[in-house]
Design goal:
4 copies of one chain form a homotetramer. Chain A is an alpha+beta fold and 365 residues long. Helix content of chain A is 19%, strand content 33%. In chain A, the strands form 4 sheets. In chain A, strands 2, 15, 16, 18, 19, 20 and 21 form a 7-stranded antiparallel β-sheet that branches. In chain A, strands 3-4-11-6-9-14 form a 6-stranded antiparallel β-sheet. Chains in contact: A-B, A-C, B-D, C-D. Chains A and B meet through helix 1, strand 1, helix 3, strand 3 and helix 4 of A and helix 1, strand 1, helix 3, strand 3 and helix 4 of B. Chains A, B, C, D: One of its GO terms (molecular function) is oxidoreductase activity, acting on single donors with incorporation of molecular oxygen, incorporation of two atoms of oxygen. Chains A, B, C, D: This is Gentisate 1,2-dioxygenase.
Chain lengths: 365, 365, 365, 365
């Protein structure tokens, strides 16, 4: 920690009065001395105000359902989305200083009207089906396990054609863009331009073929052109990694721990400029090494159960539960008796691009 | 602007009670509805809380002098630096949401002890000489017009060997790293490791030869390896641009407006990952086109005078005055009768790297 | 064209004798004047010695079969591969100045021993199955339509476990590396290290999931980590593009012309540093626009038939036929009555990386 | 080395006749077997046909002078340039497989007319002054020690306003572009568009300020925008490195060996896409470590003398002498009793961009 004071004798009362007078003048002129605040502004390592926290899926879902009864969805409010507010962040709806996470809920027959914004967004479907997301006129099904993108400044809306309501996880970089003053927003049509319900999106038909890219669209794109990462592919990739491990070959991250990163096929990089997304599968009993990382992670349990230990505190997490790991908090995962499938998103691309990323494993690599 | 409400009838008292009950439950569970806050969180264009503001050099300098009388410099407080606090930012010492600007003051014989931090820092010398900054053991003179770098995680200190005090502008990305939870800090030696006072730094002898790089240090470096951009070179580059304009050739940014960007010779990019630095010279009577830009700019007048119009409000600026242009505020410069030399720094590299930069000139290109 | 001479009177006989004497002296000192050869060395546009040429599959296959009867495969000769020698290239086995194309033939039970070389290599399987290529110990099946990689400096061998011989197209950058003096070669085991015959390679299990990359292998790789691009995916991608065209959406390169580029999923770029590979599908009657391009293309017809017009000369091409388009020769394709599927490889990445690529469409874009 | 034959018994006369018949058929069909040529095509390491060779400056200069008497310079021949023809390269005017080196000679009052070509070119001035190179209308002085660029597709000419003839070294990638079929050429005006003789070029006034770039020209450029790297800067950079060495600090490549790379200030990379240029200064008695490198180097001695040992053979080199080190030939330098200043250019950027570069130091790092 920073030392609390200069290496000098305490000021006399007269000196203190003079100091007080000077500080008052500074205050009036919108100036502030560094020497009184450096320990707070420039800590020895990240000391986030955000805290580790878990939201239970049952609570989230119940309140989402309740809002479905009480609140219509439409222009103005735009989305029936309930944001997770990190208890350390003074009531702001920020799951972490840079990230937004919310449960969005759409009842049968409802439409979430079209708009676009510079904020990057994704959806992860924890359960259910029957909603189509329409991105720039491309209708994209949403089904259990799917990961969907609506990168910044693409028009998008949602409509539910099923007989059941549907709820899913929304992730955005709203807090980052809010703090950075970079946000733009534009309304689109009030009703969706396309109510088609195809089996697959056009974006997938163009871009979701392994290692193949359409010749008509060359070059690097800032965000992934794949609108939906269908669950069947994610699941197959994870199964393959574990099968390779069983056969004695490389592939898993660590013993019993398979994982993929969702990527932009035009660059091999992250799906969006500010957000990374991954999927982790741990065999029963497997665990990960404790690690400190610059940046914030949010996990949602898809299947199975696990314990995540953050800053020495264990959180039991089950289907649908959401948990946040703030920057530099040591964490590790221990899978439960049936193993665990976890979706994860983070703000790591921001820090990697700015040369600010660091990590540290107390137990070595 | 966002519409204030859903396109629906107002709730009845009974409905409102149910809503209130639901909102109270959400609050207790650390959840918040998007529909009540979207207009604030996701504005149609950036609506910064930071305001355009000017700090007078005479005030800055006078208070710096006063602090030199009352406050010792040493371990703990680390630096006698007085930060500029944007009046819109709730008393935080942030000149803009991402940037720190301060006047640092060092009396004859004083030492600012060594430390290092992940925050990127520079100094711009508005006047005076006699201080040496020591970066990783490389003593670098500070003279009028010089621009000096101490990129993240390099040990650095300052010592004043002159018979006069010296004051200069410090710029850092402290607010950005504070909000992002990326900051690391480490104390170095209490007294400088090197009290040499060479005419030029070793970093300049290696890297400040135009278009030539030392063969022994190949590859791209995250920050510029040049420790000091000496005023004589900056001045010559600006004079050359105006001479080319006089001779009818390309070079200036716009009529009567010469400008250079300080760059990393190992990449051609910005000097540091989060901070851009430029120097502008306007002939008497020259002006720039009004423009909106994503990102925050801070100007300090080096010589001459100008009017900067921000959000339709004019600020008269003279030698040493510091002015901030928050994100997306329309601004332009009009040089005074003797022209104007202005140092400028900004956070634009952050937004360019994340594909969030935009600009708009109402009067065309 | 360059003018044939200086704008000066012809030399007198005495002058010519002096010139001849000087040229003789130069010759002896290993010097040569530019002025006598500039028109040849620096033409107004590329004037390749390589000529457009077609090799019939029936001839290629018949001679490959014959060599299977007469020539054993083993250490020393290494591969039973018959290279295509462009008739313009003075008997060198270069299909184009930079590229090698060959038919490789392996009889039942035969092994092509392991080796590695800096030359980048691929295989395209025009027909048949039953051979496995083993790359660094990863056994990879070869089946009709598959595209396989063995990038530079990876050990590889082949073994045929089928009851039938198998022939395929080999493509390499041998001529480029030969001319550039960059080639390295190392023998591996005489017999394959792995005689496994899995349904799919390990490289595919790790990397051939659309938009998903294994977390354990981050970063950009110089060559694609996918060992086999299975035909089922290529075919599906092309079908999808044509289906999108039928539905009125973007996707095809031009009317009736679907095409994909094989890509490196860790970068989005070409599969190997020197070689680009594509697959084109033209509907019956579809054609492409005439174009000049810097670089050399080689096509092999997979299914159907087409006419390729190169430098105004038509070549009828059918299943298995190989045709080469030298640099800057104008070419276009016209599909036959049943449409055409064509594999294509080229050296374009070399020229794009060195800023030497150009193209020109006489009929506009 | 490759084994000379398959591991099989020699063919019987009957078998040989059948083989001969097959080879004849192949030949007729423009096909050739790999197994008879793989040892040549794919050697264990680069085995260049180019040989190490030295050209004496006195011979070069005398023949350049003689050509000045006998051959006019003008449209058609374009340049009075005498190319160095590596004795191993079959009479081609290639100093190395990829590179052209020539002595260009211009008498007082002469003009070399304007043209442009895709080939990248530079000039290095071994001695003299009085010629201006005009690049896209920018007149650039040529003086002893200067290094000048005319990157691909920029119009350029030369004119000599001095009372003395002048000779210099031209370097281009003519052989590379000739072999690759990438060359374009266009005539410009017969007489120079600009006969100005400024002290410095406009390109230097814009770009040759250390670490400063003109704001009006953002972004990365494929070639360096600096037209002339003036000797005074090169010399100062080398002196500074040796002074740092004397003071005990890092900077030189190895003991007594200072060196700079000429670089593109908009990227930090090489001056042109295909050519690297460096300047080396060795103290008296200093030497470099033996090394093998993929790629070709050409040295010209500027001052002093040295021995360069290539493939175990020593070459004594003095002022103006040119020597070539072909790919993968082991080489090292030993400075003479007065030290040595050497200009060096190479084709290494080609191989680095294509992931084909390798080096090996038998004596360690």
């Amino acid at each position: 920690m920073h030392q609390d004071s200069m290496n000098v004798p305490l000021p006399t009362p007269e000196e203190q009065a003079e100091l007080n007078d000077m500080y008052a003048q500074m205050d009036q002129m919108h100036m502030k001395p560094l020497w009184n605040q450096i320990g707070n502004l420039m800590p020895e390592h990240p000391t986030p105000e955000a805290v580790p926290y878990k939201w239970d899926w049952s609570t989230l879902h119940k309140l989402a359902e309740r809002s479905g009864e009480l609140v219509p969805v439409g222009r103005g409010g735009e989305r029936r989305a309930i944001g997770l507010a990190n208890p350390g962040l003074h009531g702001e709806t920020h799951v972490a200083p840079t990230l937004w996470a919310a449960i969005q809920y759409l009842a049968p027959g409802e439409n979430a009207p079209e708009h676009r914004h510079s904020q990057n967004a994704f959806r992860f479907v924890i359960e259910g089906e029957g909603v189509w997301t329409v991105v720039n006129g491309d209708a994209t099904p949403m089904r259990r396990g799917d990961f969907l993108l609506t990168p910044g400044w693409n028009f998008h809306g949602h409509h539910n054609i099923a007989s059941e309501p549907m709820a899913w996880l929304d992730g955005l970089d709203i807090p980052f863009q809010y703090k950075m003053d970079t946000g733009f927003f534009e309304f689109g049509t009030e009703h969706l331009t396309d109510e088609a319900t195809p089996e697959t999106s056009r974006s997938e038909r163009l871009w979701a073929h392994p290692g193949l890219r359409p010749l008509a669209f060359p070059g690097a794109k800032p965000s992934s052109p794949i609108g939906r990462y269908a669950w069947e592919h994610t699941d197959a990739a994870l199964r393959d990694q574990l099968a390779l491990e069983d056969a004695g070959f490389a592939g898993v991250v660590s013993p019993g721990h398979a994982a993929i990163r969702f990527s932009n096929p035009s660059t091999g990089g992250d799906v969006m400029q500010t957000i990374r997304a991954e999927f982790h599968r741990l065999r029963a009993g497997a665990s990960t090494l404790p690690i400190h990382e610059v940046g914030n992670r949010v996990f949602q349990v898809f299947e199975g159960s696990a314990t995540i230990v953050i800053d020495e505190k264990p959180f039991e997490i089950n289907h649908g539960d959401v948990v946040v790991v703030p920057s530099w908090k040591k964490w590790h995962l221990e899978a439960g008796s049936e193993g665990a499938d976890l979706f994860c998103f983070s703000d790591f691309p921001i820090f990697e691009k700015l040369n600010l990323f660091r990590s540290y494993s107390p137990e070595g690599i």
